Amino acid sequence: MAKVPVEDLTPQEAEAELQRLAEEIARHDAAYHRKDAPEITDAEYDALKQRNDALEAQFPELIREDSPSRRVGSTPSEAFAQVTHAVPMLSLGNVFSDEDVQDFIASVYRFLGHLPDNSIAFTAEPKIDGLSMSLRYENGVLVSGATRGDGATGENVTANVRTIGEIPNRLPEDAPAVVEVRGEIYMAKSDFAALNAALSEEGKPTYVNPRNTASGSLRQLDPEVTARRKLKFFAYTWGEMSAMPADTQMGMVETFARWGFPVNPLMKRLSSVDDLIDHYREIGVQRGDLDYDIDGVVYKVDRLDLQARLGFRSRSPRWATAHKFPAEQAITRLLNIDIQVGRTGALTPVARLEPITVGGVVVTNATLHNEDYIAGKGSNGEPIREGRDIRIGDYVIVQRAGDVIPQIVDIVPEKRPEDAEPYRFPDHCPVCEAHAVREINEKTGKLDAVRRCTAGFSCRAQAVEHLKHFVSRNAFDIEGLGAKQVDFFFEHEDEALAIRTAPDIFTLERRQAAAGLTRLENFNGWGKTSVANLYQSINERRSIALNRFIFALGIRHVGETTAKLLARSYGSYAAFEQAMKLAASGEGEAWDDLNNIDGIGAVVARAIAEFFAEEKNTAVIARLLEEVSPEDDQQRIDTSSPVAGKTVVFTGSLEKMTRDEAKAKAESLGAKVSGSVSKKTDIVIAGPGAGSKLKKAEELGVQTMDEDEWLALIGG
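Now predict its structure.
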């Protein structure tokens, strides 16, 4: 449908496409703003928005209430308290060509009733690719820092903002009583590279790009983590101000600089379209040398009284726009397709390319996502790239998505070699030759996009990747046992040195005590000091938090958050393992209890049950437990609390706190939070809108209370 010109669509076709675009753009907004995990490139996202705008211009009577043109960002995360912005944080409209810039400038003059005589000045500054932030000061003191969120409400990240050295905690005495300085938090490219280099050296997972890393760092629940990430800030606009210290955009930014905020040195005040475009191109030339990521240049009317007259559209100002850079692409030859096998058996295709420079970076590899992507099919079987497949020998268009992850976006059909054959994705693991299958989602009936090796830990690739996961930062975090060291130990044939499963890590020192020539210090890269440090690091991990132990097991779909839920729900590893063995059948009380944990769905529950149903897995764990001791989860134990040990369910809306806050408070008092009501439920807290869960509680005779009664019970 997107290929049909807008003017050729019937109203019925346009209405259907507007619905599809509203749903798709909303999904991408949530992925970008809330999860910091964009699924498409900026250029692809902009194309969706442009198509929506064109449809609305052609069919204004069909504009939807949930139209992307009426929305900013995405709803804020519930992990932090919410802050209501005194002045909404709106987004900018985008332009993509010189003609678009001319149209934007002309629209400003036309709205104000001026002749286009270059009498109106504009500022032009780089558009920083970071995380929007609003900093509120009262009587010169920083009182809050909030993300954009949905434009009206953001996340309160004040504690983390205070750790950023470039953000002043106090303003000069002459600052107005109420000041909201807004700008962008980002991570410098050099700091990002240094962080990844350090992680790589330690054999730990690296981060994807500076923007997502900065966003994730700012949203850490522990401000000390944020403090270690070296975040930076550029100030460029404002929200509520009790008094205005300047009457121009440039004057305001200069005031921010005087108050101690970093401002961008490339900002200029210009008056003609040609000068604005020239500055855009100059910044584009410098883009690769800047120590921060940018994705365009922002133009703003300089005089604040003219900004006030121009006002706003539904979600963006008439007096400003962003001139976006085109996605950086290059053409090179696809030399081969390699298949990598991960710890869960996923077969991931990687393109090996003739080296090509894209955006100042030499690219030799690119992601190909999965076998459907190679075949020219999307997630629902729809054609992508007009159905063109990707073949070895093709000349391909490579794009650095988000300026970091290289991906192949298309081929050059006219340059395809005559002998190029369709790529046959392997149906056997390239490492162990076991069958590789695509599972069927029981709910949707669709094939999983990923093909997986069925051999489990008997597959060398999965075993090695599992070990790397086991020793990683958020699992056992064994210093000195990084990716290279894991490869070394796994490949070694001598029993005194071999590490093939997790328990072998903890028996290494004992096995080495009786070794001769195969003593570790006799090998290159090892010495007495490094060996002693390794043993010390291993021994320090013989006692470990329960949630980290569960995470380290490498159960499919069980990440850090799920591991914490399981630890809090079961309290001890013995209780957890016993329950999981009972749940392995996929039915019965233990299975129901697992499914009823708030945050554990059927897919995750099934993965856990299948893991514990496999005797090879439980045998390895039994050996591991002879060497290490998972600690009981202390957060679950609070004998002084009136709800300690009770199972509670929250249903309906909460008005005094967010759902995440309520759950965290209950768990801190020793309660177990469940997602559904059963005969094991002790208390149901029902707010406005409570439905089936409240009805079931009443049928089962479970104690119910409203939010005020709950707060009175827990003294909160």
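The chain has six domains: 6-71, 93-324, 329-436, 456-541, 545-636, 647-714.
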